[in-house]
Fold this protein.
Amino acid sequence: MKHTYYIWTIGCQMNHADSRHLAAQMEERGYQPAEAAHLADLIILNTCVIRQQAEDKALDQLRQLKGLKRSRPDLVVAVMGCMVGKKLEAALREHYPFVDVFMGPSETEPLMEFLGGSDLPDAPGSGCGRALPPSAQGRTFTAFVPVVLGCSHACTYCVIPSRRGGERSRPKSDILNEVRELAREGVKEITLLGQIVDRYGTDFDDGTHLAHLLKEAAAIEGVARVRFLTSHPNWFTDELLETVATTDKICPCIEIPVQAGNDEVLARMRRGYTAEQYRRLVAKIRARIPHVAINTDIIVGFPGETEAGFMDTYRLMEELQFDMAHIARYSVRPGTPAARNLEDDVPEEEKERRRVALEALLNESLEKKHAALAGTTVELLVEGKSGRRWLGRTPQNKVVLIEDAQDLGGRIVQATITRTGAFSQYGEIK
Ligand code: 5AD
């Protein structure tokens, strides 16, 4: 009988990409995906610790794993990702003795070695091996491809540099081979990933730039769409803007976190720009690409954020009318500069009040913005089913649901929008 594996993934797109790489390696070793965790011989928990909430989720899963392991001592349990980080293994090992293997973000070798590792397969994406686990082939139409690993920017609130290590770009040939492999396996849309993706290649000193990588990825046969995230205002260059504006297959969707609209807060976060500089960049992007979508991330209740400071963020959101915003309450992360030097002085209820106020504003502006889409025709890549409907996304990453009897999976279709809302739209095939 074949062995089975199950991967629980919490967190960002980078974690999902790491899980996909691991799944491909497991299947190269003859493992098959299990339908559910309790049916698997091997369970991998891929963790996130960006906020306390994510960490709590991981801790909760760990407790479940402990129970499973007690009832089935032969179960193999592996924990990977940002909870493990680069240096925390020893402490975790002591705390969670039922875990067989710990590995940091993007690492797979410790598990391969544990499983008996003389003939390790090549990592997927290295040119040999598969980019997708065979079980996913033929029904996965979108994939995330990490291009910049780690981060060295050191925003004061952020735990990522200490968990994913310093910034390094992957060689361009590795990335393009992986994209080619994914396209061969039926993937239509590729999203290039980095904490500051615009910094791709800056560590090579040979002029390599994200703009070139995007163009080359878009030129690969079978690739219909390319996306990239996350951008940083200080690294989003005119060359990049021009490339997005002039390359059809690169989606006009920019993920560019502002984090706050108050300059003192931005300085304490060590973001490296002012609210005015951010406004000007957004204006420039919109002037060059009128149909662009601009998405952002915001943290409310950062240390020292006054009511007036918060209102600066509120007004910035009101003014810029983002296409999406991920709004989070500030959460102290051990080991970060903010945890060491700044008092977490905004009460939790106040953080929540501010978050809810921004969510309401976002909802209202999205409803208004999307209402303007009613009756228009949009291009969709259909990713799969969502209940009885097909789920597609526009180049701007807006979700459109359609009812249709044909198999539309993986197809690019034209659809007319019939009904709109803050988060999803409904449409009909043209
Ligand atoms: N508290 C709250 N939100 C955070 N983020 C990162 N670190 C923290 C933190 N300590 C948010 C930022 C980032 C997104 C991925 O998570 O907005 O852009």
Summary: The longest helix spans residues 348-371. The pocket of 5'-deoxyadenosine is lined by residues 50-51, 157-158, 257, 259, 297, 299, 328, 330-331, 333 (CB under 6 Å). Residues 377-429 form a domain with the OB fold (Dihydrolipoamide Acetyltransferase, E2P) fold (CATH 2.40.50.140).
